[in-house]
Amino acid sequence: MRELAETGAVAFYLPQYHPIPENDAWWGRGFTEWTNVARARPQFRGHYQPHLPADLGFYDLRVPEVRDLQAELAISAGLGGFAYYHYWFNGRQLLERPVEEILRTKKPDFPFLLAWANENWTRNWNGGDKEILIEQSYSLTDDLAHIRALRSALCDDRYLCHNGKPVFAVYRSARLPNPVATTDTWRREVEQWGLPGLYLLRIESFPDETGDPRPLGFDTAVEFQPCWWKTGHSLWKFAVRRRVRRLSSRYSHHVYRYQDLASRAMTAALPDYPRWPGVTPGFDNSPRRQRDASIFVGQSPQVYQEWLSEALRRSNKVAHRYEGHSRGVVFINAWNEWGEGNHLEPDARFGQDFLQATKAAIAFGASA
User: Fold this and answer.
1) Which of 71, 63, 70, 69 is nearest to 98 (CA)?
2) Which of 110, 116, 325 is nearest to 201 (CA)?
3) Which of 31, 48, 99, 215 is most buried by its number of CB atoms within 10 A?
């Protein structure tokens, strides 16, 4: 197994780039994330859309060569692993095929962990109403069935660990009815397999997910960028909103500066509990949302590199303070969230610039 502290940086990874029957029924036959990406259009002058993939094209994750190439790009950029989003609904999994094939074929030889995206699937995902398509439900019986279903992944030689404990992340821990009972159930089960336990990450994805994760049974938090509740409201943002609204009533987006996001994150005080820092190369979910999209303008490989370098420095402080060693880890959002405009994978505008910025920041952090 691979140690998390040796990775430097891990990128969240979206597996929604292959058709599944559920998406065919909900969104139309052949739907994948590319469906939204390809139809995106600029929403105001200077708005960078659509984001078109370069090196890998409009790929299908059922193709093993695609997964191999993704790993090669990630390794060339110095990334230490992927955090694959994992979708479990009371015994039912969605979008599980890429990870299942990675486990079955033992390829690519690239470290990974799983992050449980435990939200209801609704039409609100693309700006529609809140019709629930598939609902999350919770029970201790399901908790046990869930962790048992993950045994082959958690015991894989490539799986990321912390002091020998497999790392497992939860996106919405606040949704768990009894998080301590859930985490205790998970730990007891993996200990019966002969493992020393689990290293559980609470992802700070929303305001109700912040704070010390340890009383809830989690070991460490993960800063998930952008932090919407810390974004702030600049006069520039409101000026843009007024200006685009005069063009058409369909414009109702929230526009922010990427530089402001990075600067705020780099100067914020560290929390008084263990939390691994997070960064993002950008964000723009207008491909998914016709209204009320959140758009960061001015994304820059140079600013991103500076932010990642600072985040790596901060992660080392966290490691020293709470873990007793000198190297920490940063979580990047994301490797391939094309429908939200936050991807390290090369696009037609920046090419491999963000990958090169990642490589430079990680190399600098390793030598510091």
Assistant:
1) 63
2) 116
3) 99
